[in-house]
What we know:
Elements: H1 7-17, H2 27-38, H3 44-68, H4 70-75, H5 83-86, H6 91-112, H7 114-133, H8 140-160, H9 165-186, H10 190-195, H11 201-205, H12 207-222
Helix pairs in contact: 2-3, 2-8, 3-6, 3-7, 6-7, 7-8, 8-9, 9-12
Amino acid sequence: MTTQILPAMRLTEILKDIKIQHTVFALPFAIMSAFIAARGWPGARLVFWIIVGMVFARSAAMAFNRLVDEKYDKDNPRTKQRALAAGRAHRIDYAIFVAVNSAGFIFVCWMINELALHLSFLALFIVFFYSYTKRFTASSHFFLGLALALAPIGAWVAVREEISLVSVTLGSAVVFWLAGLDTIYSCQDAEFDSKRKLYSLPGRFGVGKALKMSAGFHAIMAV
């Protein structure tokens, strides 16, 4: 039945599945970093490429995550209606989507500066690697935070073509902020994670302790 779904409709399903509009929530970290690095307005050209790069990178990462987690998504009541798990799109659709967005991200980095281009491959490795971390470590929440921390660090590189202590500090704050947020989000899958031997703080330590850890992560971020 899924073979009869038109490619355009499958693309629409992918875009809805990865919630492309949610990219806007990651943009403030990148834009703030760019403004700090430039000590003001970094220029329309750079802001444009930073935004486009964020869309490409997040889209590639989210689609890759759906590919890697397909078998788990099919069994999880919360995620079994995702496009790939429910059969509204094909694995090849997601693979092509990941490849196109990855290429788009690398192109954007090439347009920005040489250091950004060189680091683009490492950035993609990090955002893709996160999808595997729940297989072996309950610290997976921090890997997700690291993936988002690339936003302020990358924006700094875009403006100054360097990685500075300031950009790393901004990135570190993002790591703890998102680790705390993802820990809270993961509480709804605590039972599933435990049954399927997936690693998460709620699955390993229970929801109560995980929420306390989340509060601790956010306290560290505030410091």
